[in-house]
């Protein structure tokens, strides 16, 4: 298959002048054509002479992603974002790196940053929405002191509710009787359940709050 005329033109320019910054355009044309190995080689060669050429590092990072070299791609894109935090292509590249690794929270952070710069981008909006739905569909268990999960809290509360009869209002006891009752309260098992019940209620409040944030 004949080469792209644009690639041929840029290749001649770089061969004629190896110090030309046209290498960055040549690398990008290789990447767009799906020739990722040539894109990587061209960018790395040119970056030896022009190490601060950010667009070439973005091209290199995106080509590395396509060849499965996510760690190397992340290094290149981090370099770009340190110098230009709002570089849209680098943000999308970093998001793709994390997305391919299955690191959805990190990917979502970068996709949202990219979307803040490219508002109403349909691809970004769909990707952000898809990840948010996946992350919100299955919130993880909420831990409470003592390692009790929310499911255990809910089960325990239901059992307590079923086992506890309705409370009747009792007449106020004389002061002397109240004193005697307060001294014996620590020995009553129902009184000792109150701290656990408070922990259960706290766990439910935390769970509902987290669920609201994820939805």
Please tell me about this protein's structure.
It is a single chain. This protein has 215 residues and is mainly α. The protein has two domains: 5-137, Tetratricopeptide repeat domain (Serine Threonine Protein Phosphatase 5, Tetratricopeptide repeat, Alpha Horseshoe); 150-214, no CATH class. The protein contains twelve helices and no strands. Helix 4 (54-66) runs antiparallel to helix 5 (70-83) and helix 7 packs antiparallel against helix 8 (122-137). The two termini are 51 Å apart.
Ordered list of secondary-structure elements with their pairings:
Elements: H1 5-16, H2 22-32, H3 36-49, H4 54-66, H5 70-83, H6 88-101, H7 104-117, H8 122-137, H9 150-163, H10 175-184, H11 189-192, H12 194-214
Helix pairs in contact: 1-2, 2-3, 2-4, 3-4, 4-5, 4-6, 5-6, 6-7, 7-8, 9-12
* Cα gyration radius (Å): 31 Å
- Tally of individual helices: 12
The unreliable regions are: 138-151, 166-191
Shape summary? elongated
CATH superfamily of the largest domain: Tetratricopeptide repeat domain
Keywords summarizing the entry:
215 residues, mainly alpha, Serine Threonine Protein Phosphatase 5, Tetratricopeptide repeat, elongated
